[in-house]
């Protein structure tokens, strides 16, 4: 996987851990190893500008996804074709506030948002109840699988 992470925010984050999660999520979704993904972390001002420009909604948000080649999940028998998956933009300041409310770490919130953004790049949505159930189920499975992998890695 070609995954590029660029932290333009003032908040230090564990970029290596986010990279491992993104690779795990893409592998779980059977995305071709030559697919490309960019993850950018920005401050609240930059996120607000993007949110207004692309979603016509005020204020900063936690995550935005910008698909490129509209790749879809593969299967064990057939990976996606190689291509540009797209960009995920994260706002660590918003993630930090959400993490405090949820009672977990900012990194765990960034893991959730990275997974969520990746699924959006792969065509998943949560506008309808059935879509939400599917997407959030896959999101949960990826996060649990990654947490187990990390636990084994850190032994």
From TrEMBL:
Which is one Pfam family of this protein?
A: YbeY
Which GO terms of type biological process are on file? rRNA processing
Tell me which EC number(s) this protein carries: 3.1.-.-
Picking any one GO molecular function of the record gives:
zinc ion binding
Q: Which GO terms describe its cellular component?
A: cytoplasm
| Named cofactor requirement(s) | Zn(2+)
UniProt cross-references to InterPro entries, sorted A to Z: MetalPrtase_cat_dom_sf_prd (IPR023091), YbeY (IPR002036), YbeY_CS (IPR020549)
Q: Where in the cell is it found?
A: Cytoplasm
Q: Where does Zn(2+) bind?
A: 116, 120, 126
Cofactor binding, note field = Binds 1 zinc ion.
Q: Which UniProt keywords apply?
A: Cytoplasm, Endonuclease, Hydrolase, Metal-binding, Nuclease, Ribosome biogenesis, rRNA processing, Zinc
Q: Which family does it belong to?
A: Belongs to the endoribonuclease YbeY family.
Sorted alphabetically, which PANTHER family does this protein's record hold? ENDORIBONUCLEASE YBEY, CHLOROPLASTIC
Report the HAMAP family cross-referenced here.
Endoribonucl_YbeY
Q: What does this protein do?
A: Single strand-specific metallo-endoribonuclease involved in late-stage 70S ribosome quality control and in maturation of the 3' terminus of the 16S rRNA.
Please give the NCBIfam families that the UniProt record associates with this protein. rRNA maturation RNase YbeY
**Can you name this protein?**
Endoribonuclease YbeY
Source organism: Cryobacterium shii
């Amino acid at each position: 996987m070609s995954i590029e992470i660029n932290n333009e925010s003032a908040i230090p984050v564990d970029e290596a851990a986010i990279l491992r999660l993104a690779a795990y999520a893409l592998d779980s979704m059977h995305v071709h190893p030559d697919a490309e993904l960019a993850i950018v972390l920005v401050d609240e001002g930059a996120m607000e500008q993007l949110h207004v420009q692309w979603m016509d909604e005020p204020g900063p948000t936690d995550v935005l996804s910008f698909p490129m080649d509209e790749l879809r999940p593969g299967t064990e028998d057939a990976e996606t074709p190689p291509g540009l998956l797209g960009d995920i933009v994260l706002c660590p300041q918003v993630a930090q506030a959400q993490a405090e409310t949820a009672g977990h770490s900012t990194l765990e919130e960034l893991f959730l948002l990275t997974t969520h953004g990746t699924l959006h790049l792969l065509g998943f949505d949560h506008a309808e109840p059935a879509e939400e159930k599917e997407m959030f189920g896959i999101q949960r499975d990826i996060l649990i699988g990654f947490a187990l992998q990390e636990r084994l890695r850190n032994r």
